[in-house]
Amino acid sequence: MTAGEIKHFLSINSLSIGTINSILDRAESFFPIGSKSVKKTPILRGKTIANLFFEPSTRTKTTFELAATRLSADVLNINIESSATKKGESLSDTLKTLASLRTDIFVVRHNQSGASAFIANLMGEQVSVINAGDGRHEHPTQALLDLFTIKRNKGNFSKLKIAIVGDILHSRVARSEIFALQRVGVKDIRVVGPRTLIPYNIECMGVKPFYNLEQGIKDSDVIITLRLQKERMKSALLPSASEYFETFGLTEAKLSCANSGVIVMHPGPINRGVEIDSAVADGANSRILEQAGNGIAIRMAIMAMLSGERA
Ligand code: NCD
After folding, report:
1. I need a labelling partner for 276 at 20 to 30 A (CA). Which of 65, 264, 282, 308 fits?
2. CA 60, CA 62: separation in Å to the nearest integer?
3. What is the pLDDT of residue 231?
4. Quick check: pTM over 0.90?
């Protein structure tokens, strides 16, 4: 890949293995900046990055902001609730105004699938767009920070057995995760959850469904747990949160079915006592906090790549 070759970062599905590897390598080179006393590099000095979050977010938004400031860019956090769109201005006019102020990158989160691609289309070559999660479609930066976390803990991807557990049906993370793991050569990918939360025919994506937690995580090296995306459920798909925890909640007892060195991940926000027990979330196998922190180096690497800045 040539630096600057990619204008927008919208989905894992459109990335080559070469691009994925170069982002992982670049993130590795940015990683040590996080433990320096001056956590800055001048790579994006003079550039402007706008965070446009139309949906709630803690980890993604803050780590994008930290990534941009560590690259020495100027950051605009646009408060959608109090922006001119509330006074009747169309979204496209608000975005064109931001672009005319010479913003270089828009980081977009939206509850509609395809929203970031729509904005990228509108902006063309003027502004780069990063998808920070669009509806049920994709969450590509989350998938790359998860690959980064797995690589740092496990080294090689090819022999790993990886289980993604929970609400697969409504999860943009699960979709991006499956594409990303397949790109780097993971062959044993399982999706685990109740039948109502696993898409029919998911085998077509090259993964194996399991409707029993113990069987699905048996001998696994990595378990990625997911939140129940209640905001996207249109009907009652589960009897209750407590019954879900009984059958699919990850407890220490159930974790013993996995390999002894298994790592437990979760994109957050976590719901303790629903998809994961506190003893596991805070336990020795958990990499949940490490994952959130790894988001900074990955997002730095993606923003540097889009700006055409070489190492
Ligand atoms: C995920 C998201 O927003 O899709 N979280 C995140 O980005 N940290 C998963 C979720 O909300 O459950």
Report:
1. 65
2. 6
3. 81
4. yes
